[in-house]
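Researcher: Here's my situation. A collaborator sent me these components and asked whether they could plausibly form a single complex. I don't have experimental data yet, so a predicted model of the whole assembly would be a useful starting point for our discussion.
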Amino acid sequence: MTDPLRLEILSLLEDNARLSAEQIAHMLDVSVETVEKIIDEFHSQGIILKYGAMVHWCKVGQQRVNALVDVKVTPQHGYGFDSVARRIYLFPEVQSVYLMSGAYDLSVALEVGSMEEVGRFVEKLASFDFVVSTTTHFVLKKYKEDGVILDEPDKDQRLVISP
Amino acid sequence: MNLEKKISPVVRDLPPSGIRRFFDLVNTRPDAISLGVGEPDFITPWHIREACVDSLERGMTSYTSNQGMPELLDAISQYLEERFSLSYHSRSEILVTFGASEAIDLALRTLVAPGDEVLIPEPCYISYTSCVQLAGGIPVTIPTKPQNGFKLTVEELEKAITPRTKAIIVCYPNNPTGAVMRKEDWEPLVELIKKHELLVISDEIYAELTYRGTHFSPASLPGMKEHTLVISGVSKAFAMTGWRIGYVAAPAVLLQAMLKIHQYTALCAPIMGQIAALEALKNGLNECQAMVSQYDRRRRFVVKAFQEIGLSCHEPQGAFYVFPSIQSLGMSAEQFAEELIEEESVAVVPGHVFGQNGYGHIRCSYATSLERLDEALRRIERFVKRKRQKLPISSIS
Ligand SMILES: Cc1ncc(COP(=O)(O)O)c(C=O)c1O
């Protein structure tokens, strides 16, 4: 897809999903109908998959445990990386699964309520025949996530009023 | 000893900026969303900052030539030619200054003799009147009208010219109105300017922030170079307000005169800023254009929001300000701005600080992220609704 209008709409929505079709239409100087039609296409074509809020859970006292598990696997005949990945990503505590180049094969990100839950998950993983080894890393602190800086909100250095 | 009495009367009588009082008020509200900021919300692009860091590591910490670094003068000359079809010789017709601010002061001090009149279309940037007074001149206001999109018209100019008129200082794209003057807006003025041998001090600091087409400089009209001093800088275009680099391009005779003042009063612009400005002009145009397209989106967003709120607002075509009228609410802009900060924690600047015909308007800067603009406009909408309900029935017509 190289249509600049479609790309611009996507980048606006990626940044702020609360923009209405009307607001987008005004910003890009096109009709509301055009924007609505394109957004509908994004939905039906699976280009826009979901709208959500990015939540800073720590601020509401919700401690979550994040861990990254490096997994080495041996794909078997008729049971390649894709099938292995599916077995893993179906677990609800799994946030993301990536196939990696390098020292291990799959990078699995978890978000759960406690260390014990991570332990239980890794045990489940290790019991699969196709899993050769796992290495688990715990996240100690998040500084930036999905392009958003978490540790100090963007501070506006400018004077509040200037000529 | 009465120190107050020692101050020169010109300075003593200079009114303090109307923005100051408002600044203090807003500063007591750390939670406020400020639409009162007259500078980009972007940070100087990294490669520009890096060019400066690199030069510091190499120990470039000296004075430069009075006029500015030769490479920078060349880059400015080339930039003006490529972007705005202006041809200025880099060694005799361009001077690097401490922001456009110093250039404005130099231009006025160079031209103005005691008693000379300088025309100032208003609303405009707050420095002009005071700089004319400091130079010993007499500022003469030309109020521009919202129904003309705050552009300067021939009739208005003609009416203001007297035998003592020396110059006119214009700013398009305009702070605070966002008005621009296109080629066809300038053309009718040329004859008058030539006939009266006026000099046009053209503050084009917002040139890059022109929407729907590119900026047009009056100096690019036939025969107008001789009449024009083009002032600009990197502050707004490249998000470089803190670097303090501007420049003026003018006929050699005038430039050499300005250079005389500059060498005695400023010596040279800071070398760190000059190095960064050089990088900006040579390799920063893509980022500049990306920022401009962000401003443009916000501009449309904000204009539409004001229309929906029901405050009349001409479409600004440059800079990053909208200048809606709040007259329909039956309150002064000052009262509007004060109550808005009190009740909704949103800061705007009342239009009267920008001079005549600013009364009844507020200046809102959209150099702020879309999310914050969105929130600020929701609050303004709520505020306006509340104020409307308190209006006597008779005024709803
Ligand atoms: C119209 C106008 N001219 C000049 C300036 C000052 O620019 P500089 O930072 O280059 O001194 C400003 C800054 O707000 C401005 O709005």
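Model: Some features of this prediction you could bring to your collaborator: Strands of chain A lie at 65-73, 94-99, 106-112, 131-138, 144-145, 148-149. The mean pLDDT of chain A is 91.
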